[in-house]
Amino acid sequence: MADRFLLHYSQKKPRNWRLRCLEKHPRDPGWEVGTYEKCHSKYRPKHEAGDTILDVVVKEQKPVVRSMFTITDTKVINGEHVWDFDEFYFSDSDPYELPGNYIKYRAMFVDTYLRKYSSEDPRKFVKENYVLYKKGEKPVSIDQSDWARIWEMRNERKTRSRY
Question: For 118-139, what is each residue's pLDDT tens digit?
Fold first, then answer.
């Protein structure tokens, strides 16, 4: 098992760390459909079902865990490795804050984090403090209009290209 942090852009204008940056990363993590298909292409082939991914973003200049999911299936579509997940944890309240500069969490393994920085396992914190959603369920902290925009961008990108 190779659980990993992966750093993502969040929405810049207006600033909202809970939302994906729809201009640069409109698909991943795909809470609305339960897929991870475009970001971090270098790392996607290295993971398998059972691995847990911690989605890291920047909030007030500090790295935080926005969401977490466990890969339930992997496949290759048009040469791209795609992960599926059936459920995800989402930070509807205060997120787990990680120490140091955010860039180190671009693709750090959780085991490395535990050895270097903390004896507190962030996966345990997330499971105890975040809300567990099924794929497609809207987190309560995301406005309905933002959720609709997430779907709109997914469908728009699908018809245009694989960005």
Answer: 778 999 999 999 999 999 999 9
Beta bridge partners of 62: 59
In single-letter form, the type of residue at position 139 comes to: P
| Residue entry with tokens 């990993």 | 4
CA proximity to 83, closest of 25, 21, 40: 40
Q: How many CA atoms lie within 13 A of 133 on its CB side?
A: 22
Residue 74 phi, psi dihedral angles, 5° rounding? -130, 145
| CA–CA gap between residue 32 and residue 38 (Å, rounded) | 15
pTM above 0.85?
A: yes
Written as six digits, the tokens of 97 are: 């804050």
Confirm if 47 and 74 have CB atoms less than 8 A apart: yes
Q: Which residues of 20-33 are buried (b: 16+ CB within 10 A; e: fewer)?
A: bebeebbbbbbbeb
Residue ranges covered by each domain of the chain: 4-160
Sort strands 62-70 and 52-59 into parallel, antiparallel or unpaired.
Answer: antiparallel
pLDDT tens digits along 74-102: 999 999 999 999 999 999 999 999 999 99
Q: In sequence order, what are the residues at sequence separation of 6 or more whose Cβ sits closer than 8 angstroms to the Cβ of residue 111?
A: 3
